[in-house]
Amino acid sequence: MKIIAVANQKGGVGKTTTAVNLGCAVAQRGYRVLLIDLDPQGNATSSFGLQELEGESLYDPLIGGVPAAEKVLPTRLNGMFIIPADLDLAGAEIEIARGENHLTRLSETLAPFRRDKTFDFIFLDCPPSLGILMTNALAAADELLTPIQCEFFALEGLVKIVRVIQQVRNSGANDRIEIAGIVMTMFDGRTNLSGQVVAEVREHFPERVYDTVIPRTVRLSEAPSFAKSIFEYDPHGVGARAYAKLADEFLRRHGLPINEPAPVTIDS
Q: Between 20 and 30 A from 204 (CA), which of 60, 62, 126, 198?
């Protein structure tokens, strides 16, 4: 089992879109995927239509109340599970900060999942900030996947992420964490800027940047408002094709078989 932190301290870069749709695409290929929404805003939770739930977030497990497994919910998609978010998570930042194990609380909370191997992948959708929840995610994860918008300040955001990773390593909380993948998002082939940004990021991180780029498409923006992944909302569109291709590349990088994608089957 691998725990993947999907993080970027900058908002609006396609972080949650990537966590949700990459997770769904991997699940379609026959793997069991758990998405943990660590953002109190709950955008990933809304993508599955679960935003009305209360008390089902990771808040209680983080402060020592209940096992995290009790918060796992199935989604409509076969093989795809979620621990949703709610506003209580904002309070968890304060509670965790008071503890001696303030950097490793999430890692300890997720330890039973590592032992029982119920899931093949756990994706952590991190909040767009450099706070306690993100640093806990980096301390708990095996690797970091960071979406980067195709814009001028892409490298600036990466530099900040690299610094935080180094701080987590130096603290002793997680000496194995590294940027294992960079996904370029909101690519607009009609402009020179997008191509220039991708080339620049690849120059600095040649082995980290995925070959697959995610295009700017209104369908990817619309899907969450209908509480659907892109594979439910627009299964034959360019967004769905891009995330399917990204999932294949993701599995290839992890040395796993790329199974034939199953049709989107929705549990009743």
A: 126
Q: What is the pTM of this model?
A: 0.94
Place of tokens 């992420």: 161
In DSSP terms, which residues pair with 147 in a beta bridge?
183
Alpha-carbon distance of 66 to 238, in angstroms, equals: 41
- Whether 266 is covered by a domain: the verdict is no
Amino acid letter, 13: V
- Encoded amino acid at 208, one letter: R
Digitized pLDDT (tens) for each residue of the chain, 268 residues in all? 999 999 988 888 889 999 999 999 999 999 999 999 999 999 999 999 998 888 889 999 998 879 999 999 999 999 999 999 998 888 888 888 887 788 899 999 999 999 998 999 999 999 988 789 999 999 999 999 999 988 877 777 788 888 889 989 998 999 999 999 999 998 887 888 888 888 888 888 889 999 999 999 999 999 999 999 999 999 999 999 999 999 999 999 999 999 888 776 554 4
Task: Report d(CA 127, CA 16) in Å as an integer.
Answer: 9
Please, are residues 230 and 220 in contact by the beta-carbon 8 Å criterion? yes
CA distance 149 to 46: 22
Overall domain count for the chain: 1
261 domain-assigned: no
**Domain of residue 96, residue span:** 2-253
Does residue 259 form part of some domain? no
From 194, 191, 187, select the one nearest 238 (Cα to Cα): 187
Return the sign of the alpha-carbon dihedral for residues 187, 189, 194, 198: positive
Indicate whether 38 belongs to any domain. Answer: yes
Is 16:145 a contact under the CB 8 Å cutoff? no
